[in-house]
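Final report, closing paragraph on structural work. Over the funding period we assembled a curated collection of sequence-structure pairs, and we close with a single example.
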Amino acid sequence: MSGPSSKAKDDGITPIQQMAASCSGALLTSLFVTPLDVVKIRLQAQKNPFPKGKCFVYCNGLMDHICVCENGNNKAWYKMSGHFNGTADAFVRIVRNEGIRSLWSGLPPTLVMAVPATVIYFTSYDQLCTKLRVKMGDHAQFAPMVSGAVARVGAASVISPLELMRTKLQSQKQSYHQLAACVRTAVEADGWLSLWRGLGPTLLRDVPFSAMYWYNYERGKKWLCKRYNTREPTFTMTFISGATSGSFASIVTLPFDVVKTRRQVELGELQAMNLSHQASSTFSVMKRIVAQHGVTGLFAGFLPRLIKVAPACAIMISTYEFGKAFFRKHNQERTLGPLQTILTTKR
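Its predicted structure, as stored:
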């Protein structure tokens, strides 16, 4: 059974250097895409106050009024505060009402989450892919797909509680004290497993995303190298391959991202209404979204997710490949240094 030393031999770098390369990319990517993530989650989490055929109750400070909703297309006379009409509108209204710092809501847990998730994900992927390419023989082209899926399961499971807290912070403006109270209420009601709320749709989103991403990325990178007659991909090649493969995978898996956001935002809200036993499955949440908003509801936040994922994947993978190339060159120079000294001495 081959260990870390085989990876160092095959790729020219050690697993520790792989971790360092992946962390630098994760930190840079998190800082860049967090505002887009905030907008995407706000668009996905907002609730339509006019589900067709239902009544709407509002309070004017003196009494409650019950109004029958005549349509469910957001053209009624009342709009819930905080309702956004699109990506640009969400950006403007969040900055105007909550300040520009709100666009980086949830950044601390994002940064804390990015390091272990990226270390587990990228290092596991590289280690698995190297081994599978040897074992799969004629089917080695599918090694990135299998490696990406398996690595993503491990990474997503480990950081799921941090992902949940980040989603709660981004879905609405609240303090860390309020978040702690919300988490405590959920744990008391449903136990520690409640912190893994949304893991199911997260895996349904991330595992196929990862499989498609790595397969298309490796194929795209190989095609570009062949087209421009070069053995090693350039920074531009990895950037384009990462952006293209990430865009395609994000569109296919967007419905599961919407479901994941809805289920995680529910944390604390169901417990407050004594409805914790009514936590919905992934399929039932999807049915409810389609019933209320139509099929297009499953693609809420499409534009900000696409705008986020394409550059995020491009920045992450190109930074990671650049870091690996740096360490590979550093190791070669360190290895050749003593050898050159010996040859010089013999002369």
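The CA atoms of residues 148 and 210 lie 5 Å apart. Strands lie at 55-59, 64-68. We thank the funder for supporting this effort.
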